[in-house]
Every structure is written in structure tokens, then in C-alpha cells.
Design a protein that fits this description.
6 helices, alpha+beta, 240 residues, 3-stranded antiparallel sheet, STM4215-like, elongated, plasmid, Pvc16 N-terminal domain-containing protein, Pvc16_N
């Protein structure tokens, strides 16, 4: 799921024209050594925190269907996680960095969710909304100053980006649909005790097939007359 969110963010920024003019788009941590090796304008989208959104946790099962509408698998409801990214721009001049970071910010705030056309893999198959919150309150994750301290670099302008995405669980295959009829064997009497030799002597079983038959509430059994309690009578008939 994490790599699928990375890919969706990359496609979103590319569509917004952020990579025009030879700008590189990377997901590397902006450490001091990394920054010293930069020689082209770069935007870093660094994932620095990941936590489950417990408020969205649900209990239950979701079913998957094939083209004929039959259940083929069941999976538990997905877990939701919040991914925190630190978006920064790197050039030789602060003015150029601000211009590049502004272009990324304009692209990210254009929507509250990642467009469905950009989702791949399990995110695309689930068909759920992947939320996007840009430069919002930084709750439930390390502060930006703590992140810069851990990276060993000096603070610089950055955008705090949060993505809320579902993590699909492994499916459990459903039992195949029953398509064969009932096995039925008729005998004048039941051998006692029944043995393999007795079953062989009775002959092969026959399989009932219900071609053209429609099941009723009580199955495929033929309708039958049900006796009435003493003293009761059917409509239009004499007491029984």
C-alpha cells in the first residue's frame, strides 16, 4: 500500500507540471549528506511517519464477486493508515526553492483526495477514497522540528502532507458453488450392517438433476396432501 501511495503522489505532481524544467522528484530522506550531493533542482517527498487511524477501524467482512455475480472470496474490512510526508524543495537559491515549493503546494491543495485514475494495485481494486490533507495541523506524528533534528540538517520551508489510505487484507477463497445434483440410491431393504460389499451389490448411485425445475420454498419435493387435525375440514368439503 505504501508504494502505491508513493506512485499516486508522484503521478499527481507530474500531472501538475512540477517536473518541468529538469526538476527531479524523489522520495529520499533529505539528510545533510544527501543535500550536499544535489546538483539539480529537486523536490523530496519524504515519508517520516505512519500510524493506524483507529477511528476508522471496522469489524466485518467484505465479499468479492466474479463476472457472474457469485461470491469467490471474502476478506476482512481494510485497516486505514495515515502516512505523513515532508515535502521540500532543493535548489541553489532560496527564491527558486520557494517558487518550486509553491508549485508543489498548488498541485497538492487542488484536491482533498487522490484522483482514482492515479491509484494502482490494491488501492485501485478496493475503490475507496484515499484522503489527502495538505499543510494541516500536525497531530499524531513527530513534529517537523523533531524530523529535521533526526535527519541531522537545518530546518527549511516544507509542506506537511498527510495521506489516509486503506490496507487490504489477504482474501479467503469461498467454497465453489454447488452445481451437481443429489446422489440417491433406492433399495428394497437396507442391508444391516451396511458394508462395502452390500453397497457394491446395490449398484451405482444415481445423480438427480433438476433440469427445467424451479425450487420452491420447501425444495424440489413434489407437493403432497397434508392431513388436517381431527374436527377440521377443508373449505367446501365435509369434516374429516
Amino acid at each position: 500500500m505504501i508504494h502505491e501511495v508513493d506512485e499516486a503522489l508522484r503521478l499527481l505532481l507530474v500531472e501538475g507540471g512540477v517536473q518541468e524544467g529538469g526538476v527531479e522528484l524523489v522520495f529520499d530522506p533529505p539528510t545533510r549528506d544527501w543535500a550536499a550531493r544535489r546538483n539539480v533542482p529537486t523536490i523530496s517527498v519524504f515519508l517520516y511517519a505512519l500510524r493506524e487511524d483507529a477511528a476508522r477501524r471496522q469489524v466485518g467482512w467484505a465479499e468479492e464477486y466474479d463476472a457472474d455475480g457469485l461470491v469467490v472470496a471474502r476478506r476482512s474490512t481494510p485497516h486505514w493508515f495515515e502516512l505523513a510526508y515532508l515535502v521540500t524543495a532543493w535548489t541553489n537559491r532560496p527564491q527558486d526553492e520557494h517558487r518550486l515549493l509553491s508549485a508543489a503546494l498548488r498541485c497538492l491543495v487542488a484536491s482533498d483526495a487522490l484522483p482514482g485514475r492515479l491509484l494502482t494495485g490494491t488501492l485501485a481494486r478496493l475503490g475507496l477514497t484515499v484522503g489527502l490533507r495538505t499543510a494541516g495541523p500536525g497531530e499524531g506524528a513527530p513534529s517537523v522540528s523533531d524530523v529535521w533534528s533526526a535527519l541531522g540538517g537545518e530546518m527549511k520551508p516544507s509542506v506537511d502532507l498527510r495521506v489516509v489510505a486503506p490496507l487490504a487484507t489477504d482474501p479467503e477463497l469461498a467454497a465453489p458453488a454447488v452445481t451437481d445434483g443429489l446422489l440417491l440410491r433406492t433399495e428394497d431393504h437396507l442391508p444391516a450392517p451396511e458394508s462395502a460389499a452390500a453397497r457394491a451389490e446395490a449398484g451405482p448411485a444415481r445423480r438427480l438433476r433438476y433440469e427445467g425445475a424451479e425450487p420452491r420454498r420447501d425444495g424440489f419435493a413434489a407437493p403432497r396432501e397434508r392431513p388436517l387435525p381431527p374436527g377440521r375440514r377443508r373449505r367446501g368439503g365435509a369434516p374429516r
